[in-house]
Amino acid sequence: MIEFEQVSKVYPSGQKALTQVDFALGSGEMAFLTGHSGAGKSTLLKLITVIERASAGRVIVNDYDVAKLKRKQVPYFRRNIGMIFQDHHLLMDKSVFDNVALPLIIEGYSMGDIKKRVAGALDMVGLFGKEKHLPIMLSGGERQRVGIARAVVNKPSLLLADEPTGNLDPKLSMDILKLFEILNDVGTSVLIATHDLGLIARMKYRTLTLKQGRMLGGEHD
């Protein structure tokens, strides 16, 4: 599902974000990615989604060598990846419905299917009935849940989450983790970047640890 082989990333400024990273996430596996702020977690996720490209090494995702993807192939490649961003990335002038429906509209689903899937995704994250709200009318935690609904609405084979519980209280954080488990149980591979060690301790999944851009771990707790 995901393979990193000796992957390094150096930004044009000279900043070394990742150094010779090796790890693999199997099909249907769920794992945590942890490390201090600036350790390289967000950069690693950006390499998986081809927001950034590696400076050296090989990144394989869903059997694609991402270095060989042409720019016009990237949107198609991303269709099977759900991405939950730390800062939501919602369209603030669009309704909750429109935000969650966006991946389905891009893929050409019928309006009937879109309505059913959006309703199901919003119900899953506890926001059923808020379809017509604008993001500005929601709390930070609710906006985060809209972002999660958008990421899972097209049932991706791979789900990536960058600090998905950062704006949520402990109970809601566990509810969201349970949602990820449900998705994982039906075959979705899940990689969650977080620095919440308490959350990781309560969930018995493999933990990958980055320190100053190098991968240290990969073992079960």
Architecture overview:
It is found in: Cell inner membrane; Cell membrane. With 221 residues, the chain is of the alpha/beta class. Helix content is 33%, strand content 24%. It has helices at 41-48, 74-78, 96-107, 111-124, 140-152, 170-185, 197-202, and strands at residues 2-10, 16-25, 30-34, 56-61, 64-65, 81-84, 158-162, 189-193, 206-211, 214-215. A six-stranded mixed β-sheet has the order 6-7-8-3-9-10, sandwiched between helices. The longest helix is centred in the C-terminal third of the chain and has 16 residues, at 170-185. The two termini are 22 Å apart. The relative contact order is 0.20. The model has no long low-confidence stretch (mean pLDDT 90).
